[in-house]
């Protein structure tokens, strides 16, 4: 099974889109919304999207595994965004590259790196059409801003907590501790209690739970054709369609997506498809004797080998 595409840039919609002057279903403060037309994006057709691998779009925050100071490390998504004054200039000049200066962007840590395929001019990264420069910052346990990211990695053991399909049964999920070295150059989605309103119902305020989901790992077994009405019906009527969206991984590496909001549909939904699948725990890490009761590696190790009806129903309370 080939490794599917890494998510380094914003993924375009599989259909051509248009902007409507009505409140966004996705962002409360946004007074417009981007919706799909019925015309398939020519870039998707050029990449033969009808033969692409369809995977579930997971609602979380994007992460990346690559080296930092010579060791495998989890990196959090951090896009460089323009200052308020520069943002006005971007809008006025339609994000003209001529207006891009380093001082126009908000400060980022020295360890920040630009994402793959970000264009450069005179040695400086160039913003995308939204005026942002996609990038990454390494996760460590001293930065409280990324404490939920840090909870899913153990750098001393060199492992991460990963949710994926079982190797012998695609209908079964498993939570496993995976060597960070095995995740090198992959992107993943961090989901859990304190991410995006927790649409999958993991953990609780008393015992927060987070895991990493590799991009492309949750394949859609019976995907609908790339046709507007058939996709709309699939999201509305099929249990497997109770997902945030679909990401298609084309053979040439191109990624395209559809979000329920593109079709005017609600997200999150009650009982998402991810919560209809049983999950087994395969985390057998020697717990740190000084670890907190809320340490996720300690918690998962205590239920190693057990099978649960879904990820939402795993009992984490001490």
Automatic annotation (TrEMBL):
Keyword ATP-binding annotated: yes
Enzyme class: ligase
Catalytic activity: ATP + (ribonucleotide)n-3'-hydroxyl + 5'-phospho-(ribonucleotide)m = (ribonucleotide)n+m + AMP + diphosphate
E.C. code: 6.5.1.3
Claim: ATP-binding is one of the keywords in the record: yes
Keyword entries, A-Z: ATP-binding, Ligase, Nucleotide-binding, RNA repair
GO biological process, alphabetically ordered: response to reactive oxygen species; RNA repair
GO MF, one annotated term: ATP binding
Superkingdom of source: Eukaryota
Stated role: Functions as an RNA ligase, in vitro. The ligation reaction entails three nucleotidyl transfer steps. In the first step, the RNA ligase reacts with ATP in the absence of nucleic acid to form a covalent ligase-AMP intermediate and release pyrophosphate. In step 2, the ligase-AMP binds to the nucleic acid and transfers the adenylate to the 5'-PO4 terminus to form an adenylylated intermediate. In step 3, the RNA ligase directs the attack of the 3'-OH on the 5'-phosphoanhydride linkage, resulting in a repaired 3'-5' phosphodiester and release of AMP.
Protein's name according to its UniProt entry: RNA ligase 1
Native source organism of the sequence: Carassius auratus (Goldfish)
């Amino acid at each position: 099974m080939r490794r599917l595409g890494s998510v380094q840039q914003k993924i375009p919609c599989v259909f051509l889109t248009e902007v409507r002057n009505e409140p966004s279903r996705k962002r409360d403060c946004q007074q417009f919304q981007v919706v799909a037309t019925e015309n398939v994006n020519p870039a998707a057709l050029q990449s033969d999207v009808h033969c692409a691998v369809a995977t579930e779009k997971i609602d979380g925050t994007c992460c990346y595994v690559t080296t930092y100071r010579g060791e495998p490390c989890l990196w959090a998504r951090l896009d460089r965004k323009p200052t308020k004054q520069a943002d006005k200039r971007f809008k006025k000049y339609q994000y003209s590259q001529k207006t891009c200066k380093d001082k126009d962007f908000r400060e980022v840590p020295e360890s920040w790196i630009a994402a793959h395929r970000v264009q450069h001019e005179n040695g400086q990264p160039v913003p995308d059409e939204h005026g942002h420069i996609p990038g990454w910052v390494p996760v460590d346990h001293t930065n409280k801003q990324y404490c939920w990211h840090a909870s899913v990695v153990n750098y001393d053991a060199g492992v991460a907590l990963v949710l994926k399909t079982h190797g012998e049964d695609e209908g079964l999920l498993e939570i496993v501790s995976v060597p960070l070295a095995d995740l090198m150059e992959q992107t993943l989605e961090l989901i859990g209690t304190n991410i995006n309103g927790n649409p999958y119902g993991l953990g609780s305020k008393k015992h927060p739970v987070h895991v990493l989901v590799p991009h492309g790992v949750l394949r859609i077994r019976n995907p609908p054709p790339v046709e507007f009405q058939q996709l709309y019906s699939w999201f509305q009527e099929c249990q497997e369609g109770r997902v945030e969206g679909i990401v298609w991984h084309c053979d040439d590496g191109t990624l395209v997506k559809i979000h329920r909001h593109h079709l005017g549909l609600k997200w999150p939904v009650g009982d998402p498809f991810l919560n209809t699948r049983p999950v087994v725990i395969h985390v057998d890490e020697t717990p740190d004797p000084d670890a907190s009761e809320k340490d996720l590696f300690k918690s998962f190790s205590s239920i190693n080998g057990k099978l649960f009806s879904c990820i939402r129903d795993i009992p984490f309370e001490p």
